[in-house]
């Protein structure tokens, strides 16, 4: 039976041996101890040796790291979720009518593919202890690519594709998995809450950056707007990198062969079901992120100035889904939240195609944001709940993201 526990390790690890009352106001030490299984061996079975892992369950450094990763999510995946603004601007203005919306969408598709597929590399390197290398290297690539994007000429598809699709996608991909995984070093019982807070960063970032980009495109034009956004995100990334901290020494599995680990993971029916399910889900669930604003403008059922707020409203609504809905995980379980959220998102996508009024578009934007946010917020904990030890989290997430890309 699939585990419904909210924390990543609850599906496989033993319960804590020491129970601490987290509600005591004057009790600073909320640390709990977990006896986690060792890494799987080549034959797929866990070794007999058990490793004692402690989780502080909060504290200044823990929540500072959560905030730091929140800023990184704001800048990186928030920028990815704001791509609908670029897609609308490219199709209607910057590509000068040379390319169709389906062709232009390849820019965002390539970016998203690299964000996800890079996880198989970044997840593995994170497990080996290269956390800061990935954050710094990915940030440099991301910011450099945005400055290169600002030099792209109107109507030159290949320049925009290379800078935004390939460069920015690769940079974000190197950052995404390590940023999420490091939070698991501080939390066991409160891991779902911490992950929900981190995930809300991309929703807030997408909402605010969508507004910023739309307004600045009108006032300053493409080149200056992209340079401002590059400098803005560079500053946030610097703060995030400086304030984030790893807590545990890297404990890579004894068997470092990634292909062998893939064979072990894919012998687990639960893991295979999650990978296949998310593969089919992500094939269509990013549709509103790319096309909601463009479709509203092309149907001419509202003014451009009003259509500009569709993406910010949708992305702001994801914060509700990312933070509020995960609070029901201890009662309902991760999979019992993810499944209906996906079905509702599918229904709303078909509703968006039939909407003919401005009010209808905003209703779809709000509802889709809530349930899309719930799915995205539960995605990483859902995959991580199948890990036997923390040393597997990066690899499992990276492999899953790569297959889903």
From TrEMBL:
It is a multi-pass membrane protein. Keywords: Membrane, Transmembrane, Transmembrane helix. GO terms for cellular component: membrane. The chain crosses the membrane at residues 60-82, 130-149, 161-187, 193-213, 271-294, 306-325, 331-351, 358-380. It is found in: Membrane. GO terms for molecular function: transmembrane transporter activity. Its main location: membrane. Pfam families: MFS_1 (PF07690). Belongs to the major facilitator superfamily. Monocarboxylate porter (TC 2.A.1.13) family. This is Major facilitator superfamily domain-containing protein. It comes from Lentinula guzmanii.
